[in-house]
Design goal:
Layout lengths: L1 H19 L6 E5 L6 H17 L3 E5 L6 H8 L7 E5 L2 H8 L11 E11 L1 E4 L8 H10 L5 E4 L5 H13 L4 E4 L3 H9 L5 E4 L1 H9 L4 E5 L24 E9 L4 H16 L1 H9 L3 E2 L4 H22 L5
Parallel strand pairs: 1-2, 1-3, 6-7, 6-8
Antiparallel strand pairs: 3-10, 4-10, 4-11, 5-8, 5-9
Helix pairs in contact: 4-11
Length: about 325
């Protein structure tokens, strides 16, 4: 028995040492979207900084498909050693609420580490729509149910579900028009084929400045310093927020010391002046949520989205 106990102590000691030495080989950071989008850009900035901070290469791997389910399933079933990570977004919680079946359990099989940054959405409209404020938009939609066509990047994407939430809370009706990607949805808005869209700062800022789009409201909890004159949706609907957050997660059984080390490294990345300058340019708010705060956000979002799924009867394939 003594030998067995001694062997167990030795094994635990070796495991602790291994975790303390983490990482000892390259890390794979999976992104569930194609190259070029805001999530991919942030992933590459993060990978570069983590590599310098942790002393091992961090390789970005784009694994697209099924609204992020393919990438999340890969991470959920990967070895829980800290060498396979995922930079995910609210699709992570939307999938859990709107899909009839999932190959993994979002809350049990995947462990949150930290939110890197978040991007509020901008409600923009084509100049042909006879509204210039959010109040006018809501009033027009109430008086003309389904007359406003609102484009989005696809069924079940964050802009789609956020618009559904807005309609439910403010009691108006528009027609959500899904596209295969955010860019075609934006192009048709600029062309006047649709009348409105929930978009991000990077894509819309120049079009707003050129007068090609009107900015009606932002979904942040406070007004944006880039557009201080533009109200938040929350000024009409207290408590309303809509953020494209970007957060790092890992397999559920990833050891605490590894999670703590990664969370600390991500916090250092976010706090760098260079990072904050890049983020401000792209309209990204730096994240400050660690593992437990991130876990709470995921749980609250899933609950909120499930209520929308129940009321709207929307399903995502």
């Amino acid at each position: 028995m003594k030998r067995l106990a001694l062997a167990l102590v030795l094994l635990l000691s070796l495991a602790a040492t291994a975790r303390a030495d983490y990482p000892e080989k390259p890390i794979r950071l999976i992104v569930p979207f194609p190259p070029g989008g805001v999530t991919d850009v942030v992933a590459r900035q993060l990978a570069e900084r983590l590599a310098a901070d942790l002393g091992q290469p961090v390789m970005v791997d784009n694994k697209t498909g099924a609204g992020g389910v393919i990438a999340s399933d890969l991470v959920a079933k990967a070895p829980a050693d800290g060498y396979t990570l995922l930079l995910t977004t609210p699709n992570h919680t939307i999938n859990a609420a709107f899909r009839a079946s999932m190959p993994y359990d979002t809350e049990k099989d995947i462990r949150p580490i930290a939110i890197v940054g978040q991007v509020p959405m901008l409600l923009v409209s084509h100049p042909s729509l006879p509204v210039t404020t959010f109040k006018e938009f809501v009033d027009y939609a109430r008086k003309n149910p389904n007359r406003i066509n609102v484009s989005n990047a696809g069924n079940g994407t964050l802009p789609h579900i956020t618009m559904e939430l807005m309609m439910l809370r403010l009691q108006f009706q528009v027609t959500n028009v899904p596209y295969r990607g955010a860019m075609p949805a934006l192009q048709d808005l600029v062309a006047g084929q649709v009348q409105a869209k929930l978009d991000n700062y990077t894509q819309s800022a120049q079009l707003i400045a050129q007068g090609k789009l009107n900015l009606l409201a932002v979904t942040s909890d406070a007004r944006l310093k880039q557009f201080p004159q533009v109200p938040t949706v929350a000024e009409t609907l207290p408590g309303f927020e809509g953020y494209l957050w970007m957060g790092v997660v890992a397999p559920a059984a990833t050891p605490d010391p590894v999670v703590a080390k990664l969370a600390a490294a991500i916090k250092r990345f976010v706090s760098q002046p260079e990072t904050q300058a890049r983020f401000e340019k792209d309209g990204i708010e730096p994240g400050d949520d660690g593992p437990e705060e991130f876990r709470t956000i995921i749980g609250l979002e899933i609950k909120q989205w499930r209520e929308i799924a129940r009321v709207s009867r929307i399903t995502v394939d």
